[in-house]
Amino acid sequence: MDLNLNGKVALVVASSQGLGRAIAEELVKEGANVMITSRDREKLQIVKQEIEQLGSGKVTYIKTDITNPEEIEQLIKATNEQFGKLDILINNAGGPPAGSFDSFADSDWQQAFELNLLSYIRMIKHALPLLRKQGGKIVNIASSSIKEPIPGLILSNTFRTAIVGLSKSLAQELAADHILVNTVAPGRIATDRITYLDEVNAKKQGITRVELEQKVKTTIPLGRYGTPEEFAKVVAFLASDGNTYMTGSTFLVDGGMVKAI
Predict the structure, then answer these.
(1) What family does this chain come from, according to its entry (predicted)?
(2) What domains are defined for the chain?
(3) CB under 8 Å to 182, separation ≥6 — which residues?
(4) What pLDDT, on the 0 to 100 scale, is given for residue 205?
(5) What confidence tens digit (pLDDT) does each residue in 69-92 have?
(6) CA separation for the pair 78, 148 (Å, rounded)
(7) In the 8-state DSSP scheme, what is residue 149?
(8) Which residues touch 139 (CB under 8 Å, ≥6 apart)?
């Protein structure tokens, strides 16, 4: 299938590693021009050099703290100045710390809110004037906790779920502007974030991370962790012209792990 991404312009947030990087790579392979961003300038320089070799799409970057509203505004402005338009916004952010309700202070909740929900809202707000010019796609990355809360991740469970409500509401409000909005939720995808969570849970259970990973795999019908590339292909499809009639939906990429209907 030709996704018709050649020449499209995409902004992929939190894209110097993990799922964000994998999505940027997939879009570049399909011919899209991609703005990558994170708080680590050195990583961005390396990622740009590596992924621009993968396809015909152009890659540029700007260092951005997505909890800073002024830097978000500058990011959108820089994307437009570099490429002259914006067709695709991929909202993404690193997960908040693991822990129980009693372990977090108000400041922890505020930080998680600003990183994992308010950054998405601000990014969309500033991107909309560009997206409205020709229509486009917004894909919000969440977590499998939107369907089945994950023990020990109350911050993520709270704010990732809110992303679904945001996406569903925006899908209705922006349909007239030909902007499609969807949510994609990863399960156990092999990234540094999952390694961190496995280490936390393994320590709690008094076992090694490898032993914990083997236990988790028994709960996944496909019997393995997913790869970032597998996740990225789903996002690329939703962001492409291959998707013309799906909006307001939530998609799990989890190997069948989540049991909720």
Answers:
(1) Belongs to the short-chain dehydrogenases/reductases (SDR) family.
(2) 9-187+227-253 (3.40.50.720), 190-225 (no CATH)
(3) 137, 138, 139, 140, 167, 171, 238, 243, 246, 247, 248, 249, 250, 251
(4) 95
(5) 999 999 999 999 999 999 999 999
(6) 38
(7) P
(8) 88, 89, 90, 91, 181, 182, 183, 184, 235, 238, 239
